[in-house]
Amino acid sequence: MLLSRSKGIIGLDIGSRHIKAVQLKDVKDGYQLERISVASLPPELIVDGSIIDSPRVVEAIKGLISDAAIKVKDTAIAISGHSSVIIKKISVSQMTEEELNDSIKFEAEQYVPFDIEDVNLDFQILGAAEEQNKMDVIIVAVKKDKINEYVSVVKESGLNPVIVDVDVFALANLYEISYEVKPQENIALINVGASTINMHILNGGMSVFTRYSPVGSNMHTEALQKQLAASYNDAEKLKRGESVEGVHMEDVASVLNSASEDIIAEISRSFDYYRGATNEKDINEIILSGGCAMVKDFAPLLAERIGTEVKIMEPFKNIIITEGVDKNYLKKVSPVAVVAMGLALRGVGDR
Ligand SMILES: Nc1ncnc2c1ncn2[C@@H]1O[C@H](COP(=O)(O)OP(=O)(O)OP(=O)(O)O)[C@@H](O)[C@H]1O
Ligand SMILES: [Mg+2]
């Protein structure tokens, strides 16, 4: 990672609704935010995690980089999605990291539902397993064709992709750097974007559960379009609390809340899976991020339904902000910038 230290790195989060870029630099007292920008994408360019119209995505990335006056090239990106990313906790015989590196393909093969030659594999040793002479390992398999799809648009945008991460790990990375890890506590990091929910549950800072669901705040938009006969653009405005001629705000609130209930039901199902898979019970705290966190009453409703305190993730908590960065802009984009921040921190933070 030496290459990125002096110049800094871009964390680039290519979401289906927003592309976010942040440039971070490793400085003496910590990490410094140099540049940040968020651009909207029309909804038809990236669908179900697939880049449908790559020329226009490239155009959007180029525009974003030039608007933000970002000059560095090294970039960290993330992939998400259940059809292209497999994350599993497995136990293997005790061995060194080197030995596991040599045998990971063999160990992972039975857990990955794709041809092992079609995925890039990565792993992290968690520590001794309950069973004697075994250790717990998280394996991450990402489909090569999905990586190529994203890496190509990044390259075509004139950037140099140096890290390909996974959304849920970017979230955990940001959490680790910005929050004090509480031993024993179960913390659920939940990012609800336009079309995806990424969940990562940590116990004492260690990964215990990850889950992806293909739904998100598009449910709010679609409900507004259907029930209030609003256009897509008007629905997006209404979500942000802006008024639209002929639409009553009380009607908006009730449509939003009922879509929120559906999204929360999905989150609740994920918690059921978590309980089934881990014997762990309580979630001590939910740390919410993604654009959905800004939808009126979503966070309090989530807290009420799950029965757990919900905090909105603060991606700039422990970050030095360069003078040129507009503080008001930061506030506005904060919940949608978390994945990009986690990515950039990976780039400068790996020592
Ligand atoms: N005030 C707001 N500002 C920005 N987005 C908002 C706001 N309120 C609600 N949203 C919604 O949040 C969603 C965008 O969030 P985000 O940028 O996290 O998604 P994304 O990363 O592009 O999507 P995904 O990761 O699911 O592909 C959109 O559905 C948008 O309408
Ligand atoms: Mg996203």
Task: Characterise the protein shown here.
The chain is α/β, with parallel strands linked by helices and 351 residues long. The chain folds into three domains: 1-84 and 144-179 and 317-351, Nucleotidyltransferase, domain 5; 85-141, Dna Ligase, domain 1, CATH 3.30.1490; 180-313, 2-Layer Sandwich (Nucleotidyltransferase, domain 5), CATH 3.30.420. It is 38% helix and 30% strand. It contains eleven helices and 16 strands. The chain has helices spanning 2-5, 54-67, 97-109, 144-156, 167-178, 218-228, 232-239, 249-278, 298-306, 327-333, 338-349; strands at residues 9-14, 18-27, 30-40, 46-47, 50-51, 74-79, 85-93, 119-128, 134-143, 160-166, 186-192, 197-203, 206-213, 285-289, 310-312, 319-321. A six-stranded mixed β-sheet has the order 10-6-1-2-3-16, sandwiched between helices. A hairpin with a 5-residue loop joins strand 8 and strand 9. Helix 6 (218-228) runs antiparallel to helix 8. Bound molecules: adenosine-5'-triphosphate and magnesium ion.
